[in-house]
Amino acid sequence: MDAPLGLRERKKRDTRWALSDAALELALERGLDNVTREDIANRAGVSLRTFNNYFTGKYEAIAFRQVDRMRQSLAVFRQRPAGEGLWSAITESMLAPLQSGGTDVAPTAGEVAVIRDLLAARDLRAALTKDLFADWVEAIAQRTGTDPARDMYPRLVAGVVRAVGEVAIEMYADADPPVAYTELLRRGLAEVSAGLPER
Fold it and tell me: How does pLDDT run across 17-45, given as a tens digit for each residue?
């Protein structure tokens, strides 16, 4: 179980969230191309130097939201009951930080347009995918009694989890009419859990 954050760590996490919220708000208002690091810092009420202490750029600031949710999911996954099936534990842990985060509702047309721009940004995709993969591999290996250095299984499972998340986000951006991200994520994980049967 993860130790609770101290006051200093909580303040840092709150600042990261404030900057990430500001970045997303501005992207929704103006479009991603019309947002600068200075704009984000001003909206969050901090200096540009403070922004630079936390993020390398606007893509990383926006990606923090998803990365932080993945960290929360990982913490939940490590605490799921030992007797629970692997894919049930993964599904519940992936959905846990999303249930109260507004992603269980369909996006507006304006939000969809910005989400499409964000998904097209190579820097944002890199920021989302560089973190946490090794941690998920380790946690899956521990739960399944496999060796992450020698067994392919935990890496395959972690890779599938990442792929389902990416596909769900892409479908979330393209769905017409709009669909809640949580619904798409749950559907994708259910398909994988069923073994992706032929149709």
Answer: 999 999 989 988 888 889 999 999 999 99
Token duo for residue 113: 């347009």
Fill in the DSSP letter of residue 104.
T
For residue 90, how many other CB atoms are within 10 A of its CB? 27
Instruction: Report, as an integer, the average pLDDT of 166-177.
Output: 84
Angle ∠(83,87,91) on CA atoms, nearest 5? 110
Query: Which SS3 state, helix, strand or coil, does residue 107 take?
Result: coil
Q: How many helices (H) and strands (E) does the chain have?
A: 10, 0
Distances (CA, A) of 112 to 116, 128, 170: 6, 18, 10
Q: Which domains does the chain have, with CATH numbers?
A: 58-193 (1.10.357.10)
CB 74 within 8 A of CB 36: no
Percent pLDDT > 70 in the chain is: 85
**What pLDDT was estimated at residue 192?**
94
Is the Cα dihedral 174, 177, 181, 182 positive or negative? Answer: negative
pLDDT in tens, 13-22: 899 999 999 9
